[in-house]
Specification:
- The protein is mainly α and 238 residues long.
- The protein has a single domain, classed as Tetracycline Repressor, domain 2, CATH 1.10.357.
- It contains 8 helices and 2 strands.
- β1 and β2 form a beta hairpin.
- α3 runs parallel beside α5, α4 packs antiparallel against α5 and α5 runs antiparallel to α6.
Length: 238
């Protein structure tokens, strides 16, 4: 199974693969959802939040993850991954710092915590304590919602907490689906077995049988979240 692609969205372009487009769109959707739940939506703040998370999560987190262990097996040199990761994360922080003038000091803790989450999770710092299902759900689910909401409302209110809880649960589900799919795609040498049904017929079990339902769910969830975010943005901005 060595010729199996490392992800369902993998293409010949290493950069396309390493940037995880479906998952990047999914997690940027949390940013839009968090912002659009605020009492008033400022388009400039919304765009800045999306770009900051695109740089921090869509680019920096993903290139640092590839740098740490090469899970996708790309040929991008280490120095290039390192440079892109540092520049992207610095760009995200710079946008956050620029936003303090408009939002206030309430944004500062989020500017500090964001880079810590990226580095600690993807480089498995602190003994990998954050590189868990809970760490993933907090960092890439709840945190974007809360940050984007605060960037709009200058405070945290109950609706933001509830939305963050929903994003936490959805991100946990994402991890629960993607972990076994990655295991089969990237590490399984062979898959053998069968399922015997009540009527005596059998269903062969192979890699595709195991992966297909997991990745169908991941595809559906990623684009569903994008559609929900788009619907909220249209409703609030038009």
């Amino acid at each position: 199974m060595a010729d199996r692609a490392p992800a369902f969205y993998a293409r010949r372009s290493d950069w396309w693969t390493v940037l995880h487009p479906p998952y990047t769109v999914w997690h940027l959707s949390y940013v839009v959802i968090g912002a659009c739940l605020a009492p008033h939506v400022d388009v400039v703040r919304l765009l800045a939040s999306v770009v900051a998370f695109l740089l921090a999560v869509g680019v920096a987190a993903h290139v640092f993850d590839e740098l740490h262990g090469r899970p996708l097996g790309t040929a991008i040199p280490d120095r290039v991954l390192t440079t892109v990761g540092i520049v992207s994360l610095a760009g995200a922080v710079a946008l956050g710092v620029a936003g303090v003038d408009r939002v206030g000091l309430v944004l500062v803790p989020f500017i500090v915590v964001g880079p810590v989450l990226v580095l600690a999770y993807d480089l498995e710092l602190l003994g990998g304590r954050l590189h868990t299902d809970v760490g993933f759900a907090l960092a890439w689910g709840a945190f974007p919602v809360l940050t984007a909401y605060v960037a709009q409302a200058d405070r945290v209110r109950v609706e933001a907490v509830l939305a963050a809880a929903a994003a936490f649960g959805l991100s946990w589900a994402q991890r629960a689906l993607s972990t076994p799919a990655r295991l089969v795609r990237r590490r399984a040498r062979s898959v053998e077995g069968r399922v015997v049904l009540d009527d005596g017929t059998t269903q062969p079990v192979d890699a595709a049988f195991l992966i297909r339902p997991l990745e169908r769910a991941l595809r559906a969830m990623s684009w569903s979240m994008a559609a929900l975010a788009a619907a909220l943005a249209v409703a609030r901005l038009t």
